[in-house]
Amino acid sequence: MSIATNRRTFLTAAGALAGAVAVGGIGVASASAIRKSPNGKPLAGVFPIGWSPCTSDNKLDLDAMVAQQKFLNRGKVAGIAWPQNASAWQTLSSEEWHAGADALLSVKGRAAVVLGVQTVGFDLNKSIEYAKYAHSKGADAIISLTPPGASDADIISYFKALSDAASLPLLVQAVGDVSIDTLVALSKAVPTLVAVKDEAGDPLQRAPELLSRTGGTLEDFSGAGGHTFFAEMEEGFLGTCPYVGLSDVLQRSFELYQAGKKREAYDVFGRFLAFDSIPHANEYVCIARGVFPEGEIMRVNPPPPNAPMARRRPEGKITDAQKAEIRLALDTYVKPYLVA
Q1: Which residues pair with 113 in a beta bridge?
Q2: E strands, 111-160, in order
């Protein structure tokens, strides 16, 4: 089935795209499809997975965390999700989690803060503690991966407990073998669930059924570095979770698309993809753009050995020549498209 046919199926079933309206500065397809945080921030658009930047001695750099959030505000990016896989959440101590959350929340602006609350071993009591802390400190939403190997009943119970603890909008990062049936059941059982970052299978193939069966009430987000976001927008996706460095460019593409300027959106997306093809671009671009200081360590866990090569981090240490190539590409090809 073609993208266009899939999209028509979803639009008919969900009753979306009744007309373009503006919500919180984002031109969107349907106002009813967009949920807002308690702080009034739209939970749609580009929500990069924040880095956990560290100094040379591997200590979490809180000044860099603040700079990261300020950068996203300057870039008019929808928000940030931290800490998730690209943030190396498994490596963070409880003290680092709290300090990092406080650093992000200390920055006021348009970019929403979505705090990841899963813990090593999926300790529900600890996750509930994190969720309550997120609520008490004014976070916009919380997110969690699905517990590995859990039954549908256990997944629903887990997210119900988080929802009850935080009273915040909730996002689920579906991984492993989580089915569409599970996500549909979860959306019905947990009213605070606003979006799924779907990484359990091919999100493009799963989108039409997922969106139609949830009546458009559950927003569909993606990951994979944002590489397929344009095709996903054609399917009705309302968000993505890429890396931080060019999130302002991807946000611009999203807004152009929602405003009906699809050709311009496609051209901007092409710049994003071309830059992202440069080895080590994601790890170095925040340094090249002055967000993080030179020598900063991005504390990121390596992907599983069987991860597709297109999504694996390049091996080896970045060279001075590669740094120069990244800076040249930014100045020569991407600069007119930067927002921050």
Answers
A1: 80
A2: 112-116, 141-145
pTM equals 0.87
The single residue listed with the structure tokens 């813990």 is 119
Q: Reduced to 3 states, what is the DSSP secondary structure of residue 84?
A: coil
Instruction: Using alpha carbons, list the distances in angstroms from residue 122 to 104, 145, 157, 182, 293.
Output: 23, 9, 13, 19, 33
Question: pLDDT truncated to tens, each residue of the chain (340 aa)?
Answer: 343 433 333 333 333 333 332 333 333 444 446 889 999 999 999 999 999 999 999 999 999 999 999 999 999 999 999 999 999 999 999 999 999 999 999 999 999 999 999 999 999 999 999 999 999 999 999 999 999 999 999 999 999 999 999 999 999 999 999 999 999 999 999 999 999 999 998 999 999 999 999 987 899 999 989 999 999 999 999 999 999 999 999 999 999 999 999 999 999 999 999 999 999 999 999 999 999 999 999 987 756 555 544 444 555 789 999 999 999 999 999 999 999 9
In this structure, are strands 219-222 and 193-198 parallel, antiparallel, or unpaired? parallel
Helix, coil or strand: residue 137: coil
CA distance 142 to 131: 7
Residues 3, 241: Cα–Cα separation, whole Å: 21
28: alpha, beta or left, given left = phi > 0 and alpha = psi -120 to 50? beta
The token pair that represents 110 in the structure block = 């348009």
Residue numbers of the domain that contains 289:
3-337
Q: How many domains does the chain have?
A: 1
What CATH number did the domain enclosing 205 receive? 3.20.20.70
